[in-house]
Amino acid sequence: xxxxxxxxxxxxxxxxxxxxxxxxxxxxxxxxxxxxxxxxxxxxxxxxxxxxxxxxxxxxxxxxxxxxxxxxxxxxxxxxxxxxxxxxxxxxxxxxxxxxxxxxxxxxxxxxxxxxxxxxxxxxxxxxxxxxxxxxxxxxxxxxxxxxxxxxxxxxxxxxxxxxxxxxxxxxxxxxxxxxxxxxxxxxxxxxxxxxxxxxxxxxxxxxxxxxxxxxxxxxxxxxxxxxxxxxxxxx
Amino acid sequence: xxxxxxxxxxxxxxxxxxxxxxxxxxxxxxxxxxxxxxxxxxxxxxxxxxxxxxxxxxxxxxxxxxxxxxxxxxxxxxxxxxxxxxxxxxxxxxxxxxxxxxxxxxxxxxxxxxxxxxxxxxxxxxxxxxxxxxxxxxxxxxxxxxxxxxxxxxxxxxxxxxxxxxxxxxxxxxxxxxxxxxxxxxxxxxxxxxxxxxxxxxxxxxxxxxxxxxxxxxxxxxxxxxxxxxxxxxxxxxxxxxxxxxxxxxxxxxxxxxxxxxxxxxxxxxxxxxxxxxxxxxxxxxxxxxxxxxxxxxxxxxxxxxxxxxxxxxxxxxxxxxxxxxxxxxxxxxxxxxxxxxxxxxxxxxxxxxxxxxxxxxxxxxxxxxxxxxxxxxxxxxxxxxxxxxxxxxxxxxxxxxxxxxxx
Lengths: 236, 408
Description:
The structure holds two protein chains of two kinds. Chain A has helices at residues 43-51, 85-95, 100-113, 129-142, 159-174, 186-192, 210-217, 224-235, and strands spanning 2-12, 20-28, 32-36, 56-62, 70-73, 147-151, 178-182, 195-200, 203-208. By secondary structure, chain A is of the alpha/beta class. In chain A, strands 5-6-7-3-8-9 form a six-stranded mixed beta sheet, sandwiched between helices. A three-stranded antiparallel beta sheet of chain A has the order 2-1-4, with helices on one face. The relative contact order of chain A is 0.18. Helices cover 77% and strands 0% of the residues of chain B. Chain B is built from twelve helices and no strands.
């Protein structure tokens, strides 16, 4: 079943309305789609378009059924200066009217998984970048939405954190959640994504699973990294 | 070849160019011609009229209130140090350059403050001379005492700020504000009317100023704080204009690892409804943000002093007006909380926002306004007045917050 259908003819800002063009893909239940591309390709802009943050958008974004909620994990942590980590979780729980019991169980479990139990009453605005990133991931996972939209989650994460995050993603996939992931980490994307969307210069240049990429690039044993570079070289 | 003087001059010009461009974005030629210039022309005309015939009602203002205004003028402002982030690359190694820039910056600040206080004294001049019968000499004496006190306070604030952080700094500033204020308000008029006392205090303040400047120039380890302060000063007006147009600017980070209040993220309300969590968020924000807390306390003290300085019937009318003003003041905190990036990540039901606003505004206004009411009620009718004021104050705040909750 489709949880996200993206069909963007063009999108952008008032002074530059066509920052991204011709981007279309779908995300199904229990599927993970990775958006990859070089710096400035339009990955984050695509995510912003999906979230409805761009003033100009021509096309259609369908987020599954009417009441589907999504969890957004931004690239840059968005934190509240005057609240402790635990209080951030309380706000998220209140916004989604989560039951107290469920909230306590999930939050303790997530804090344990990401090794942040010791700092749960600390101000996350003073955390390192990686720890702040973990806070955003915990906030995203806490509400257990139907769709995850995750923008560059691996930046700043230590290897343990990366492992925990990938394990959680797999658990959520097994739950039937759809995950849209934007990343530079091609080796990880190759391992965990069911399909890949390659964006360059604001346009979608290729999409499919790793096998389709290899066939397209005529590299039967090639990695996603090899295919990525070959496609971009041909584009240039 | 660049010298320290040229470097300072370049930074000085760059700062004023930046501020000019900031205001230029708001005041284009049309706004200037149709609003600003006519407003200034009217202001000048009105001011000249005041010299001939000031409004009689201003004669009713008690002298202590006028002294309080002068004190606030003296307290405001800060000593600029034109240091920049990039100085850590090369300039910081040249201690003589840094010291020279600090000296020039302090000199600039002292001259600037002289002009600013002078200008403000000039504005209030008609009331001093005509309503309160000050001679020109008395005005000058008051000006110099206020100026010297002001720059000394600013240097003390800066020096203390370099060594103490967090709540201890806030407590010190509040204590300094109150103590210096009480001394000034109660004694300034007496001092300026006594020549020997005036000259003694003048010389004392001048020597003290010299000592403070010397300490400031020689203090070590101030670079990071100076840069932070300079950036805040540079962006002061742009942040103000952004806020006016509804754009939220990122706030300063709290340096503590854990909060002092609600150390273990303790709950204020046992029941964890959406409304209670939002109210708790607002209350904790104000209590944990030293600037918000200081503003709240200052507002409460100044409002009490202001209203209390009037005769009974005026006091009663102003007390009623200030009940609404207080709620409006507190609503600014609520709006800042709800407009923050993190809170905006979530969707909140309209009814939850309204009821949470009502509860938050009520709970946050009550402590300050009831204290104010108690003082004013006691001043008017002793203990009976204080109790009546508490009851009436609480009730009026309740109904005002119900109305305000629909508009914030």
